[in-house]
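Q: Given only this backbone (540 positions), what sequence would you predict?
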């Protein structure tokens, strides 16, 4: 009785793509995203100007920022955006490289699929190739000691070479190394202990590293001191205000004197709080909550500098920098909670900030970025982030690899030899992985105005002839040089994460053989509402 009856599983209006069509669609979208950022790779890469729906402008060549700003719709393309974000969060650099490599792996996989090789075999081959590639990277890595400041400086400068920094690269590289080394302890460096503040005005070369914390606030009262040398710092996490009750209450007053007594009681409470700070010896107070006007008056009388509404993250940095302890109850406060540093208010442009510097043993530092306009300071902030991250990676791991496409070509050559030892069709996938790695030096050469094919051929010949894996592309002259001696070095952790992220994303996309797009219920609902509000015209 049910013969010939269609079985409906999906809602009407849903779209479904299966088999090779679904796979090709996903691969094409991912390759398009990779090609969008390919021209930004390397020191001579180009910038992108991004304008959002509100008209705000972003000028950058940072892969993670570009992919975050553009509004990607395709689900497979969104996976590559996630790759860039994950790469940025994990290691702080290599976002563009990971996206380009993922796109190239998918491009090579598409050719293998056309040769009737099943995606599962390609995925298996890519996994084996990734494991071997990470092993080969470890073999060619350079050991770095934490006290080798010059090598760390080269690592930071390599990360900054691809940024629009002008002549300020050397200055920023030194700042990045100094900042990370100051917070480095017990084999770890927490970059949350480095605050970065952007201030417009002056030039990038006048960017400053402060051995302490810079608070984006100003001193509360005009009668308070603007500078306190060797200040005794109190960090309080309670309001210097009269506490309001958590329930509604009425107070009946029959005598006008009772009003005065009530107000005087509030004043006494604030006076007691301030006196407690004064007795403990505090000369500078940083409050995470509010400070009453009357409390400001009492503090000013005692010559105590006060700053209110300080962010929680800044309070924690102040505690690490000044050795002060954050107190939550004013009755328990004593001199044991105080820290020490020099505190001063500084006017930068039209804004005022508070410098807490010359701390005895600061475990928190600040970088004040100066620049001609908002776009310059924002790009400088992204550059500082990358430089700090790569210095941290090398300090924590103790290993680096040469740049300029040298590790990709070396690993590619080793993978081709490894592929000969693998039986079956996985061998083709490993060879495809080796070919995909060559896309990185090719992109470097292309963005530098060189012939990609000839440059990569010369690079392979130089590494083969000299048996020297450090030979890479010197993009400014087009010559093949020893990258280690040229000072072009990158963290081992960044390269390993690039290979992992790109491979995992390519494998995930290759395993998709069915794409089901549900009907847009929101649009349908709006259409129905619109039809109710505007009835159709009656027939003529």
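A: Predicted residues:
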């Amino acid at each position: 009785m049910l013969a010939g009856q269609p079985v409906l599983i999906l809602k009407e209006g849903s779209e479904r793509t299966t088999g090779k069509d679904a796979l090709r669609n996903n691969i094409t979208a991912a390759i398009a995203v990779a090609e969008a950022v390919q021209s930004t790779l390397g020191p001579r890469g180009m910038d992108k100007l991004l304008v959002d729906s509100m008209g705000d402008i972003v000028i950058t060549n940072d892969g993670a920022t570009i992919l975050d700003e553009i509004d990607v719709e395709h689900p497979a393309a969104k996976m590559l955006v996630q790759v860039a974000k994950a790469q940025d969060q994990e290691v702080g650099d290599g976002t563009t490289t990971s996206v380009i490599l993922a796109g190239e792996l998918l491009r090579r996989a598409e050719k293998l699929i056309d040769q009737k090789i099943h995606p599962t075999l390609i995925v298996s081959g890519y996994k084996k190739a990734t494991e071997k590639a990470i092993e080969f990277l470890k073999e060619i890595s350079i050991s770095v000691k934490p006290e080798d400041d010059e090598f760390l400086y080269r690592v930071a400068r390599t990360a900054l070479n691809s940024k629009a920094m002008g002549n300020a690269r050397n200055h920023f590289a030194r700042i990045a190394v100094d900042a990370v080394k100051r917070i480095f302890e017990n084999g770890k460096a927490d970059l949350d202990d480095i605050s970065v503040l952007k201030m417009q005005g002056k030039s990038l070369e006048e960017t400053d590293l402060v051995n302490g914390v810079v608070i984006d606030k100003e001193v509360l009262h005009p009668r308070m001191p603007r500078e306190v040398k060797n200040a005794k710092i109190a960090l309080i996490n309670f309001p210097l205000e009269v506490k309001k009750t958590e329930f509604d209450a009425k107070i009946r007053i029959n005598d006008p004197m009772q009003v005065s007594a009530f107000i005087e009681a509030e004043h006494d409470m604030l006076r007691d709080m301030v006196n407690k700070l004064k007795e403990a010896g505090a000369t500078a107070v940083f409050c995470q909550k509010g400070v009453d006007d009357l409390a400001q008056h009492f503090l000013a009388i005692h010559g105590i500098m006060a700053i209110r509404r300080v962010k929680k993250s800044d309070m924690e940095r102040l505690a690490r920098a000044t050795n002060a302890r954050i107190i939550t109850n004013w009755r328990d406060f004593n001199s044991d909670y105080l820290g020490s540093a020099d505190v001063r208010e500084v006017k930068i442009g039209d804004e005022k900030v508070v410098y807490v510097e010359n701390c005895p043993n600061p475990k928190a530092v600040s970088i004040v970025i100066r620049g001609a306009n908002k776009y310059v300071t924002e790009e400088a902030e992204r550059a500082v982030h990358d430089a700090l991250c790569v210095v941290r990676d090398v300090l924590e791991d103790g290993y680096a690899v040469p740049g300029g496409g040298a590790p990709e070509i070396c690993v590619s050559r080793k993978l081709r030899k490894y592929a000969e030892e693998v039986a079956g069709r996985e061998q083709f996938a490993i060879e495809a992985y080796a070919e995909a790695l060559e896309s990185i030096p090719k992109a470097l050469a292309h963005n530098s105005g060189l012939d990609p094919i000839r440059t990569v051929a010369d690079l392979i010949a130089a590494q083969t002839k000299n048996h020297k894996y450090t030979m890479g592309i010197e993009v400014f002259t087009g010559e093949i040089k020893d990258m280690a001696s040229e000072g072009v070095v990158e963290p081992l952790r960044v390269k390993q994460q690039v290979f992992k992220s790109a491979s995992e994303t390519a494998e995930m996309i290759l395993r998709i053989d069915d794409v089901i797009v549900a009907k847009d219920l929101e649009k349908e609902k709006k259409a129905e509402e619109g039809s109710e509000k505007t009835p159709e015209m009656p027939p003529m």
